[in-house]
Amino acid sequence: MAAKGLRNRLGSPPRVSAVHRMLKNPIYTGVVVWKGVEHPGIHQPLISRDLFEKVQSVMESHSTGGDRAWKHDHYLKSVLYCDDCGSRLYYVVAKGRFGYFRCVGRNTRRKPCGQRGYIPAQDVEKAVETIYERVRIPPQLRKGVERALKEVAERERHRAEATVFLGRRLKQLANERERLLKAYYADAIDVATLKREQDRINAEVAEAEAQLSSEGAKLKKATEVIELALGLAESCPDAYLRAQPDVRKLWNQAFFQKVLVRSGSSPQAQAVYEEPFASLLGSQEVVGSHKSTIVELPGIEPGSSNLWAGLLRA
């Protein structure tokens, strides 16, 4: 924030305590607190109530000795294994910029491992992309995919209806909050009742916003998966490269039981497929092999809609 130009009234970068006060201040949700009572502000909120409550929860967990370790995420880290000792690979970021994968067995010395210490993440990503480039799914499978996707689309239609209902509920709570303040100003209720009702409304708003965010995210995710699945039936590598990291993570988990990675000047990756792909692609786990598997699917019959529906649920 200091690098962006944020300064306090004395022209100095803000202290940690100032940032803490900012994070604790509900004014950014669109309210003003006066003598312990929340009043709607005339300014536009910058964040949702749900996000504000999440921030409070995080700070509370830190103040009570919660886990402060920074954990980096990557869409491959749940499926990668060392091709030498069989241990998982975990993801680290060096100097805040450079991503690497490391072997747990080698790092903890629990297993003898001949892999080198760090494998650049971009090299591993490229090796996995090469696996997808070698998968060829015949066009006739598209019909089976489309049948399964119709079932998924119908299920997500109900989710879309739920988001509309939650939007209406948030409007109702906003009206309820306004009526509550009017009752307070008219001396119809006391401060204790006002605070109690405000706490209830705030809790309901946070819950509704969280559910709305979750349902909206799931709906967006389902749409992306549908588009990815349709693209998958035609061109597996193109569909994978177009997908966002979170969608790639879903498909890596659906496709692979594990991906064995061998370090070197040009890291290699070998796939051990999950069902139904293990049967469809005829993949076998070859422990110790450092050669990539080339997968072709000539003449395979279309899969059933139940098979694809199960894949999409995964």
Key attributes of the depicted protein:
single chain, 314 residues, alpha+beta, Hect, E3 ligase catalytic domain fold, 3 domains, 3-stranded antiparallel β-sheet, 10 helices, 8 strands, 52% helix, flat
Report on this model:
The protein has 314 residues and is an alpha+beta fold. It has three domains: 1-69, Hect, E3 ligase catalytic domain fold (Alpha-Beta Complex); 80-127, no CATH class; 141-313, no CATH class. The chain contains ten helices and eight strands. The chain is flat, with a radius of gyration of 26 Å.
Give the arrangement of secondary structure elements.
Blueprint: H1 16-24, E1 31-34, E2 37-40, H2 49-63, E3 80-82, E4 89-94, E5 98-103, H3 104-108, E6 119-120, H4 121-133, H5 141-185, H6 191-234, H7 236-242, H8 245-255, E7 256-262, E8 268-273, H9 277-281, H10 305-313
Parallel strand pairs: 3-7
Antiparallel strand pairs: 1-2, 4-5, 5-6, 7-8
Helix pairs in contact: 2-6, 4-7, 5-6, 5-10, 6-7
